[in-house]
Amino acid sequence: MESPLHHFEVHTIIPIHIGGLDLSINNAVVAMWVGLAIIAGSFMLVVNRGVSPIPGKLQSVLEISLEFIRSMVYEFIGEDEGKKYVPFIASLFLFILACNLIGLVPGSYTITSQVVVTGAFATGIFIMTLVIGFCKHGMHFLGILVPPGVPKIMIPLMIPIEIISMLARPISLAVRLFANMTAGHTVLAVLFGLALTSPAWVSWMPFGFTIIINGLEIAIAFIQAYIFTTLTCVYIGDVIKLH
Amino acid sequence: MDNINTLRYDGPDFLLVDSYQSINLMSENNGLRQGMQIAFRLGTELTVATLIGALLGHGFDKFFDTRPWGLAVGVILGGAAGCLNVYRAAMLLTIDDDDTNRD
What is the ipTM of this complex? Predict the structure, then answer.
């Protein structure tokens, strides 16, 4: 019987080593490519077929998702400022969603269950918010470390607290997505393992739970992608509005 | 541009209605989504901030050789930062909730 954590292992498919760097193509990279291909392919298919005023099935789905993301960005960043961030947030949401959903296909790989992937996203977003903040407000951006209305005597205490709370943002962003995906898939693997190994008169129970939890995992795939992008919008909105 | 002018819809009618209903469904803050969002978000905020505080405190201790004061202060400040993050997240969610009730 395989370990329930077996499906998180990374296997090299095409080894590539350049100057001491391991750039090998592994199953995680392939799954990521598939995710990208599905998202880019479906958009290209709709655009190449011609965008019709009365949308077809695929166009409807894509339009709904883009409308949804746009309204989310406008809500948290504001309509004027938010416009330029819609493409980034939409790509982020659709890519994370595609990665989460691909992971649910048996035999595939859940890229978002690797903390290095979610960590890279979160670090990128964190650095991006800092750059946006400094570009927009200059050195006034450091004022984000002092919440409005704080008495002067509290400022030396508030600055370290605010620094920790800022540093916690990307880490909680990365850990939340990674932990939820890993936990969900491990539970699925354990339950399916139980269904395979237990005697027939009892194995229907873990098998039934596997099906139910698979349904829950589909919901979680959407919710996690939604939370990740919502928080990205909140963080960008925070540095733009500066309190 | 020709394609934009041709009014062509090859899918069944109910899909058109469905798509508009789904827009409404997705725009509304429905209970399950809202609840899951609160649970997933607040759960990690406090833990991660406390851990960051502890790590920074530990690093401070190693660097300045002030063991165990850096760690002790770091945990307290981290906990405070966590509470602040949870409070901010909760306030944001409360505002959302008020907006929904007003609608």
Answer: 0.78
Residue in B with minimal Cα distance to A70: B27
Residue A117 · residue A92 · CB < 8 Å:
no
What are the residue boundaries of the structural domains of chain A, listed by start? 6-241
Q: Which one of B2, B34, B52, B88 makes the best mutation probe of the A interface by having the most chain A beta carbons within 10 Å?
A: B52
Question: Which two three-digit tokens encode residue A19?
Answer: 């100057």
What's the token pair of residue A226?
């939604």
- C-alpha to C-alpha distance for A115 and A224, rounded to whole angstroms: 14
* Closest in B2, B40, B48 to A171, CB measured: B48
Q: Which tokens belong to A195?
A: 């269904």
Single-letter code of the amino acid located at B86: V
| CB nearest to B37's CB, from A63, A179, A227 | A227
Whether A135 shows a pLDDT value over 70: the answer reads: yes
Q: What's the confidence (pLDDT) of residue B101? A: 55
Give the other-Cβ count within 10 Å of A149's Cβ: 6
In chain B, which residues have pLDDT < 50? 1-9, 14-20, 22-23, 25-27, 103
Task: Give how far B90 is from chain A: nearest CA, Å.
Answer: 13
Enter the tokens of residue A182.
Answer: 């890993």
Q: Where are the domains of chain B?
A: 36-102
| pLDDT per position as a tens digit, A74-126 | 998 989 999 999 999 999 999 999 999 999 998 899 999 999 999 999 999 99
B26/chain A closest Cα distance in angstroms: 7
Verify whether the Cβ–Cβ distance B85 to A165 is below 8 Å.
Answer: yes
